[in-house]
Amino acid sequence: MSETKKITTPLTDDVIANLKTGERVEITGVIYTARDAAHKRLLEEYAETKKLPFDLEGQIIYYVGPSPAKPGQALGSAGPTTSYRMDAYTPDVLKLGLKGMIGKGPRSQEVKDAMVENKAVYFAAIGGAAAVISKSIKKAEVIAYEDLGPEAIRRLEVENFPCIVVTDAEGNDLYVTGPEKYAK
Amino acid sequence: MKEVHVDKIVDAVEALCMKAAYDLPKDVEDRIVACSKQEESEFGKYIFDQILENVHYARDNDYPICQDTGAAVFFIEVGQDVHITGGSLEDAINEGVRRGYTNGYLRKSMVLDPVFNRKNTGDNTPAIIHTFIVPGDKLKITILPKGGGSENMGKLAMLTPSAGLEGVKKFIVDAVKTAGGNPCPPVVVGVGIGGTMEKTTLLAKKALARKVGEPNPNPQYAQLEQELLEEINNTGVGPQGLGGRITALAVHIEYFPAHITGLPVAVNLNCHAARHAEVVL
User: What's the predicted TM-score (pTM) here?
Assistant: First the structure.
């Protein structure tokens, strides 16, 4: 396992080119939350108005539906949700400038192809380690689709948010190579 | 005849929802610790460390172990000598869920209608309630908060008798392998075999309420559980699907006699945060 790399948002092409599958990273800066319901609405809104509730250029979307904050917390427990539910929307969102995604679980070939084409990277956070993960979230505010409750789009300020590069911008995929190494 | 007032049920369910969300039961934690010692992959070891740190941090601070605090699935055993007073059992369970998920800062994850109106109900109701009438004068309430990521990886096969033991094993191992990193491995594998379509899926769910790693009392099925666990761990899926020795913490099988034509098998997966809590009134 590699040393932990520290990166900041928004992501630049240089940073992305240096991120390789199997590296541990810590992210600091602003990231946005969105799950499938928010993706669907985001793309519908863009199709209608050609506008988005936030600028996607160089940004990271974290697939998460957090639990409510207790007094004294910025956000409640906030581990990743399963990413393949976003696969249907991801290629279109990448075309709009998205550069990073944080989730858990394998992506479709279409998504991986779109990531190579648009030079984007997919990070895994540890599913079910949600209380510990929320320690790295310093601020959270709902910026769109509040009626979706836990699925609303939130702007998060994170410090040293831990994750693993699973699919890099060249399409290498730890969900394929990792298990192959240990299969008997 | 023993009387149990619904207010008592509401209070018990409220407390149970929070306990299940914050405090991973000892049986699950012990099993995670034991399995972590067998893990060989670097990422696998790191993931086990993070999982255990999270379990302790959540328990010590009353934070949800996972943000997905689940659909509230209940198994309720009502002693036939129990008389519930003051209202309906189902309403009491739902009121307890409403209070537990609201007062406990748990995520509300239920939508009103699966197809036509996916609006959040706002209080995690309705609960999924399975009630059984049993001898005695006790009321036993078990909650199994069930996360969506692992639930979506469930599978049912209406196999026929010629599939045999090999067919059953192949179906179960394939289900876990195809699920990969999606259900948050290391998973607990709940299996139902036999009965009818709905019976076998319910058995699979019920298998997840068993203490983790406790074998089926029937030695043939206990042996099958061990064989399946080994085969599943040999897939290499590993913690979080990133490759490793430990894909499953345990395999639990529940079985039931079947029709002469059928050999139904259901697989219901639970994530490593295999939450469950129970209370007897």
Answer: 0.96
The single-letter code of the amino acid at B144 is L
How many CB pairs (< 8 A) connect A and B?
Answer: 166
Which CATH number goes with the domain that contains A47?
Answer: 3.20.130.10
Containing domain of residue A26, as a range?
4-182
Of B42, B50, B152, nearest to A126 by CB-CB distance is B50
Q: Can you give the pLDDT at residue A135?
A: 96
d(CA A134, CA B262): 48
B196 in contact with A, Cβ within 8 Å: no
Cα–Cα dist B181/A81, whole Å: 11
Q: Identify the pLDDT of residue A2.
A: 67
Task: Tell if the CB–CB gap between A180 and B272 is shorter than 8 Å.
Answer: no
Per-residue model confidence as pLDDT tens digits over B95-110: 999 999 999 999 999 9
> A114 by DSSP, 3-state: which?
helix
Q: Do B67 and A130 touch (CB under 8 A)?
A: yes
For chain B, domain boundaries: 2-20+65-146, 149-274
Q: Do A179 and B236 touch (CB under 8 A)?
A: yes
User: Which residues does chain B have with pLDDT short of 70?
Assistant: none
